[in-house]
Write a structure and sequence with these properties.
This protein is α/β, with parallel strands linked by helices. Helices cover about 35% and strands about 20% of the residues. The protein is globular.
């Protein structure tokens, strides 16, 4: 599922070579790689995703695909077999990027789905190389999840922060353990809490994504209440709410086709959003539902703007006028 930013926190917009801030020289490895037809080698092309908030960042692909790649709703990396990109290729790209102009945001985003899963020494070496060769660099960010975060010790995460890792985008999706198991998330509520605490202690900012509708009609309220309580516990600086969109070919799509999963209608989805806004107690969080998948785009500092956000949601729910919602043709991943 695609991701956002500081924050509409969306899970990833499709990025292609034409979106690079500057082109790498033709003699360097292609910046975007996917698996070849036999599933083993690497070749140029394929789809690469990044959060919308990283739109102006330089993209550096250090892994191919996702090492978990089992989440029932996600189609982002299903055409790829997970692989770690050879260090020589990564270094060649960094050298090529060093010859170009700085990224507008002065940031680098590490692709693919969970670059944080790399061995610690490789990550440290890469971050040190980025800092040495790109003097304009202000922050490095990556996707991460409970598996990749908790594989790192607190000391290792602190070392990564010290050499430039400033943000981890984490698709938590739900605070409901039943829903987590149903979507094969590969983590639990307690593991999300442990991962969030570890990032906070290391000084790495945590940008969290949750999915409206992922509990289906039957689990809608439980998912919303449990997610709000989880967000209150982990207290991230950024939260982005997306609406789950069953994608053809995924297990969730198949479950929907068989009637085993029923997506809530727009009004029930707005009810979930209302619960998140009303019940999440967050210290200083940019909360957004302005991802393209959502029916009602909102973005605000929740601790300051909770009342107007609730008023906006309640007004739409009271009128039930579909004209106030984003039209279906304008929604997307």
């Amino acid at each position: 599922m695609p991701r956002p930013a500081p924050n509409s926190n969306a899970r990833g917009l499709l990025a292609t070579a034409r979106h690079l801030p500057h082109p790498a020289a033709m003699s360097t490895p292609a910046p975007f790689m996917t698996t070849s037809a036999d599933g083993h080698g690497l070749q140029p092309g394929g789809q690469v995703y990044r959060p919308p908030s990283e739109a102006d960042s330089l993209l550096l692909q250090v892994t191919v695909g996702c090492s978990h790649n089992r989440c029932s709703y996600c189609a982002m990396y299903r055409e790829k077999r997970f692989a770690i990109r050879p260090q020589a290729e990564v270094e060649a790209l960094i050298d090529a990027y060093a010859l170009g102009r700085p990224a507008p945001s002065r940031r680098v985003f590490l692709c693919d789905g969970d670059a944080l899963i790399l061995p610690h020494a490789r990550l440290v070496q890469m971050l040190q190389s980025l800092r040495a060769k790109l003097p304009w660099l202000q922050r490095v960010a990556t996707y991460g999840d409970c598996r990749s975060i908790l594989r790192k010790t607190p000391q290792e995460l602190k070392e990564l922060a010290d050499v430039g890792l400033g943000m981890v985008y984490h698709g938590v999706e739900t605070g409901d353990d039943l829903a987590m198991a149903a979507i094969v998330k590969g983590s639990t509520r307690l593991e999300v809490i442990a991962a969030a605490d570890r990032l906070r202690e290391a000084g790495i900012r945590h940008s969290v994504i949750v999915l409206l509708g992922i509990g289906g009609v039957a689990g809608s309220e439980r998912h919303a209440h449990e997610t709000a309580s989880l967000l209150s516990r982990i207290d991230p600086p950024y939260v982005g709410a997306l609406t789950v969109t069953p994608v053809p070919g995924t297990p969730l799509w198949q479950a929907q086709e068989q009637g085993a999963f029923v997506l809530p209608d727009p009004w029930q989805l707005l009810g979930e959003l209302r619960i998140l806004v009303a019940e999440s107690e967050l210290t200083a969080c940019q909360f957004g539902s302005n991802h393209a998948s959502n029916y009602l785009p909102l973005r605000a500092l929740l601790s300051r703007d909770r009342a107007p956000m609730l008023a906006a949601i309640d007004g739409v729910l009271a009128r039930r006028d579909a004209g106030q919602l984003k039209p279906e043709w304008a929604r997307g991943l």
